[in-house]
Specification:
Blueprint: H1 2-26, E1 28-35, H2 42-61, E2 84-91, H3 96-108, E3 114-117, H4 121-134, E4 138-140, E5 156-158, H5 163-181, E6 187-193, H6 196-211, E7 215-222, H7 230-239, E8 243-247, H8 250-263, E9 269-272, H9 280-286, E10 294-297, H10 308-321, H11 327-346, H12 351-359, E11 363-364, E12 374-375, E13 389-394, E14 397-402
Parallel strand pairs: 1-2, 1-3, 3-4, 4-5, 6-7, 6-8, 8-9, 9-10
Antiparallel strand pairs: 10-13, 11-12, 13-14
Helix pairs in contact: 2-11, 3-4, 5-6, 8-9, 11-12
């Protein structure tokens, strides 16, 4: 047992030394990134990959049009003599085992100093376990399953808020909707995919509905890779909820909306839990059939009125990719910028030094593109300043409708019936 433990320590020490020597010798800092570049979530993965590439280009080469953004002067990381960041991409295909395998490859073969990923909560769970074992920092910009920061990990850091907060936001919205708009919501349904993210969301929604006196008429969990949702939607329609709270990745989100229309299912509102409902392809594919859906989010372009940095960086993203940021890609950009800040403050590529710098992170809200108070991690690796908003699709755009003091448009309620839409 002693020999095994000693050997493991030598392997970890060797990896750390190789990482540090490689970075300083080549003036290049290799960061591994694990995202769904193929498979059902490939569209989302592509947008997040583009966000990472923009962040690295700003750090390495500068962006004079956004002087208030950290590293906008370019030239690499100043505290490491201008060392440039190089991203090493890995495709997890939406498969947790593939995510774990790729994490190990990035650490042991590519000698990355840290890992960023992995969007899908169930993949983040397995990939971050590998990083924890090898003592390599793992930055999670997007995955929202609350349990990810309840594992007593020391090397896991999440910049986004999580579903415990987001689901609480749903019920706060219902309460304020009645108090401030005179709209009373009582009958709910939960319709969620059945991986870690969707299952945890269902449990939270069930718990809060009971605690707050709502009638949860139906809870449906469907296979994440379903090819049709007809029977599930028929069950929803029979339950007759006012609001369907839904957690779906892109393919299922589009399929669900098409099925709602085909079967004439028209609740007062679809209240979505981000993900597929905020992907650029959602509106592009559905067109007018995407209208009026409300989804929780963490970013919206219309909030640039409160933080000019949002529009300034989005303009750079649009110039390169001809699309705007989404809540997903904006969070991915922010995650990598947070990691770069920590590596620079550490002045080292040694994993323990980066981990300590991440623990000490305290980035103010006016230095990030998210509508948050900033980024600061608690002892579980969770950003305590992450927060959520609700946006509604109106005229083909996402408009902030809650919190009401941040709203740029009034909420449209209820959604028009399918046969009453123009």
């Amino acid at each position: 047992m002693y020999v095994t433990t000693l050997c493991k320590r030598f392997v970890q020490a060797g990896i750390a030394m190789a990482i540090s020597l490689s970075a300083h010798a080549q003036q290049e800092i290799k960061i591994g990134v694990i995202y769904p570049l193929t498979g059902a979530a490939a569209s989302s993965g592509a947008e997040m990959k583009s966000a990472l590439e923009l962040a690295v280009d700003i750090i390495n080469n500068g962006a004079k049009s956004v002087p208030n953004l950290p590293f906008s002067e370019g030239g690499g990381l100043p505290n490491l003599k201008g060392a440039k960041i190089k991203l090493v991409f890995a495709d997890h295909q939406g498969n947790p085992q593939a995510g774990a395998t790729e994490a190990e490859r990035l650490i042991t073969q590519e000698k990355v100093v840290a890992i960023v990923g992995a969007y899908s909560s169930n993949v983040t769970a397995t990939a971050s376990q590998i990083a924890e074992r090898y003592k390599i920092p793992f930055i999670n910009p997007e995955s929202s399953s609350a349990s990810l920061t309840e594992r007593n990990f020391k090397w896991f850091f999440r910049t986004t808020a999580h579903d415990d907060l987001f689901v609480h936001n749903f019920f706060e919205f219902f309460k304020e909707l009645e108090a401030k708009k005179g709209i009373k919501v009582k009958r709910l349904a939960a319709f969620n995919e059945n991986t870690l993210w969707g299952n945890e969301t269902s449990k939270l929604e069930t718990k809060l509905a009971a605690e707050r006196g709502y009638d949860l008429t139906k809870v449906i969990s469907y296979p994440a890779k379903s090819t049709q949702l007809t029977s599930e939607v028929q069950l929803l329609k029979a339950a007759a909820p006012q609001v369907v709270m839904q957690s779906s990745y892109l393919g299922d989100a589009i399929m669900a909306m098409k099925t709602y229309k085909e079967l004439g299912f028209s609740p007062d509102m679809i209240l979505a839990n981000n993900s597929g409902f905020t992907d650029t392809e959602f509106i592009r594919t559905l067109g007018k059939d995407a209208e009026f859906v409300i989804t929780r989010d963490v970013w919206s372009l219309d909030l640039a009125k409160n933080n000019p940095l949002i529009k300034e960086v989005n303009d750079l993203f649009f110039e390169r990719n001809k699309i705007n940021f989404t809540g997903n890609s904006a969070r991915t950009f922010t995650g990598l910028m947070t990691l770069a800040d920590a590596i620079n403050r550490a002045g080292s590529t040694e994993p323990e030094a980066i981990r300590k710098a991440l623990i000490q992170t305290n980035i103010p809200g006016n230095k990030i593109i998210m509508p948050w108070k900033g980024i600061k991690f608690d002892n579980k690796g969770q950003n305590v300043y992450g927060s959520g908003i609700l946006v509604q699709i109106i005229d083909g755009k996402y408009n902030t409708i809650w919190p009401f003091d941040l709203a740029t448009r009034d909420v449209v309620w209820p959604m028009p019936k399918w046969d009453q839409r123009k």
